[in-house]
Amino acid sequence: MATELQTNGGGVTLGAMDVVLKIWRSDAETGERSLERYEVTVGEEATLLDCLDVVKDKVDGTLAYRKSCRMMICGSCGMRLDGRAVLACKERMKPYVDRGHVPVVSPMGNLPVVRDLVVDMGPFWSKIRAVKPWLDTGYQEHPEGEFRHSQQAMNPIHKESLCIMCGCCVSECNSMEADPEFLGPAALAKGFRFVGDPRDRGKIERLEALNEEHGIWDCTRCYFCNERCPKGVDPRDAIAKLGAESIEAGIDRDMGAKHAKWFVRSAETTGWLRETELVPKTQGLAEAIRQTKFAVSLAKRGKVPLPFPPHVAKDVREARMLRELVRSQGRTGAAGHIQGERALSRIEHVLHDDPEKAPASRIAPEKARG
Amino acid sequence: MRVAYYKGCLASLSAKELDTSTQALAPKLGIELDELESVTCCGAGDIHEAEPDYYLHLNARILAYAEATGSDTLMTICNVCTLNLRQANHMLQNDEALMKRVSDNLEAVGAPPYSGGVEVKHFLWLIAAGEGYDRLKSVAHKGLKGLKVAPFYGCQILRPSKLLGFEDPDRPSSLEAIIEACGGEAIDYPAKIKCCGFPIIQAREETALNELIQPIEQSMEAGADAMVTPCPLCHLSLDAWQQKLEASTGRSFGMPILHLSQLIGVAAGLEDSELRFRRHVVSMDPVLEKVEAP
Ligand code: SF4
Ligand code: SF4
Ligand code: FES
Fold this sequence. Notes:
The structure holds two protein chains of two kinds.
Chain A: E1 5-7, E2 13-26, E3 33-43, H1 48-59, E4 78-81, E5 84-87, H2 94-99, E6 104-106, E7 113-115, E8 118-119, H3 122-130, H4 151-154, H5 168-172, H6 174-178, H7 184-195, H8 203-210, H9 224-228, H10 235-248, H11 255-269, H12 275-283, H13 285-290, H14 292-299, H15 316-328, H16 335-338, H17 341-345, H18 360-363, H19 365-369
Parallel strand pairs in A: 2-6
Antiparallel strand pairs in A: 1-2, 2-3, 4-5, 4-6, 7-8
Chain B: E1 2-6, H1 8-12, H2 16-25, E2 32-35, H3 44-50, H4 52-68, E3 73-76, H5 79-93, H6 96-108, E4 119-122, H7 123-128, H8 130-139, E5 148-151, H9 174-181, E6 185-186, H10 205-221, E7 226-229, H11 232-240, H12 242-249, E8 257-259, H13 260-268, H14 272-275, H15 285-292
Parallel strand pairs in B: 1-2, 1-3, 3-4, 5-6, 5-7, 7-8
The structure holds iron/sulfur cluster (2 copies) and FE2/S2 (inorganic) cluster.
């Protein structure tokens, strides 16, 4: 019913629309939850945040959510819309109205809910603090003049510098859900923002710390963080850069690093993954022996291919020579990742707007959280 | 259609049943496979993380051999291979200088050059749309008799969607469409788009098992007779590591896990020697009994 008309600052006339929303409300004291339905009339350009503001002003003043800038800068308004973590001030509601779909709004995942759409960001901030998010200049005294750095020298950390700490990536991180102590995508992206900063003097120390138990090798490569980040930080890629820098610096004590190195070794020797040797190479011989029973159960099913004679790819010599050649060209460590960023940024994000089906993966994130 | 076929490590080693069922099924769906010989592992997330420039070259080499077959499509049967190859392909196709350096390097070691003429597509995508899907119904003549199947997509066939982009990463429907075309009933559950834990199953077993339990438990609660996945790595963790999940939780799941090619293969009446269910850890007998029942 686009009958009411309103005028924005530029004098352009915009129609109005009725938005129907369902919001998960919760009581701060009892934790009791209920899904409530709201209907508001807003301008056609309205975002989810605009709708919440109208709900709060006109329908129910007790609705709790966070906001500040209203322009995708402050990172306050992270929440879930149909199960996806989004910035409320970035999501336009018109497509939902056009489809006649009633979306469900809920708080972000992986963080404790305080009330309604407000989560406790405490655990988020303590992980950010854990990566020492400040520059280690390596000097105590003030220098005489300024230091100069070219734009080019700063480019490698361009993407990570875009983070507004909204928590959308953390909300959906599958490893953090399984191990709440995992540092997680936002803190690790911040970690690379300093590891990759040419002015920083604490690189090795930082990498050592990020290689600890709940650090980079906890990441299960689910790519939810890249998918959700509203600012294009691509935290998973930042973690890959940290992995590459660590291995290049010889910091490879973690089983995750050993696992990765065995793939490299396999590729340049036989071409194919040397699957059976992967366990002892990753976990050590002692652990591999402890796992014998498990291994035997797999061997019975042909899942432990014999390493001898090795399964060697045809023309594997090329793969071996390639590694030598590539290493001599110096794009080692994170530089190998960064070289592809410009090309990847040219790809437009595909928009999927199929309105009809809203299966469980979209509408019931609460259930998914258990 | 004729496609270059890259089977990857697992289908050559511990998941040979995926290769044999794919080779048997593809021609029935009008897909002629031209298997690549001189190729290596795509490096999984591992070489990508550890030595990204080497990752790019290994994948470029696979793309180059695919291009040399004269086909414009490289077909994969693994999520991880799909993301790795598509990502490398996008990097090369959108950066002339990078393409030149990499292609020159390939030639320097005796491999064919690469010019960007190949598109990487997962087997699932060839069946879930177009001609493949049209043929599916007649191929799946035996049907699945209403078998309740829980689709499990895994991560790297959905995300990052800007590199994969076949379908909505949050509301995918290709596996459901295939299950239904085969006469099965698709079961819906939230964790179908989440991670199976495989990439860290050796380095962080406990964390990985906490991920793995979600799809298995939810499928079971939703009444699934079996699960199906387009990824051999997901298959390995869902099938082979299920016993570890049973040991660590003291529960029994017994959830049979099908490769996509096996699911269609059963409906299409492929031979035992092609399906090779004996290579699975969790028995497929209850599924077969249900499907074979008069
Ligand atoms: S990385 Fe992206 S999603 Fe994560 S906190 Fe920063 S801006 Fe938000
Ligand atoms: S890719 Fe890694 S950091 Fe990103 S959401 Fe998944 S597990 Fe978390
Ligand atoms: S209100 Fe500031 S980012 Fe949304």
